[in-house]
Amino acid sequence: MINFKYNKTENIEEIDFNLLVNQESSINEIMMSKLKNCICSSGFLILKNTPISLNTINDLFVQYKKFFSKPYMEKNKVNMSLTNSNRGWGAPKSEQVNSNYNPDFKEIYDSGPNIDQKHEFSELPYYAKNIWPDDMSELKNLADNFYIQCNNIGLKILNKIAKVLNLKENFFSDKFDLPMALLRCNYYPERPAWAKKKDFGIAPHTDYGCLTLLFTEGDPGLEIRKFNQNWLKVKANKGDIIVNFGDMLQLWSNNQVKATQHRVIGTNKTRFSIPFFFNPRHDTVIKSYKNKDDLLAGDYLSYKYDTTYRHKF
Length: 313
Hints:
By secondary structure, the protein is of the alpha+beta class. It is 26% helix and 19% strand. It has an 8-stranded mixed beta sheet. The chain has a 4-stranded antiparallel beta sheet with strand order 6-11-8-9, with no helix packed on it. The chain has a two-stranded antiparallel sheet with strand order 13-14. Helix 3 packs across helix 5. The longest helix is centred in the middle third of the chain and has 28 residues, at 137-164.
């Protein structure tokens, strides 16, 4: 086992979701001040007292675990490598988040928006139809409902971030009506005996999207990189949401919002986590230039997807 250096576990800023979104609360200003500090410094926060119940989170974990326990041949029926998108199961080493390291040894399951209405982006891979195991309708139903709940929370957080950035509080609202958001479950097996220094559950990286909501079962594993380049273990309770900001939001905000590098090394125990990656609609302008075309959110994500998912190489 490789010995990785990291700091002792410390507390990341905790924010009460109800107090953050309730402008009538006398403590709202304190929550907003905490949010501003997280945006500008650590790039991470822990959200408490959210509308998603612990039972809902637990039920979804149960279904994902049921899927990952299936034999390879069953999981392979919904292998995303058979598609042109990031929908379904990703086998070990199907994703390489950092080209300086080996492909990640985790497994993943990805699903996107379930949009009923007709829209101009329906043929793009970011809006591809989800694929599910034939015998797991409960997973599909729970994941679809969970996606909607995460979508609502993500937009409320972004509205508060807009206020911190001195923008209109509804600045982001019309840019997320057709979000390129992604719900995932990560399955981290025990760290393999063959793993070397460049092998990770997920290698050091920054998220390339806008905003990430992460659900865990209260077990440690995630580490974030501090200003002094040491690694800090993140500890959150069951039911809490770990929130971090991605490269897109950092770019979109002219570097006012910080995207922080993080990783999962892997231990002698299996571990699961559920991230929700919240991104705007395809044609959202995230950066304007004087002498070249505007940078669209969809084009930005396309480049990142194509250089991360190995079946897209």
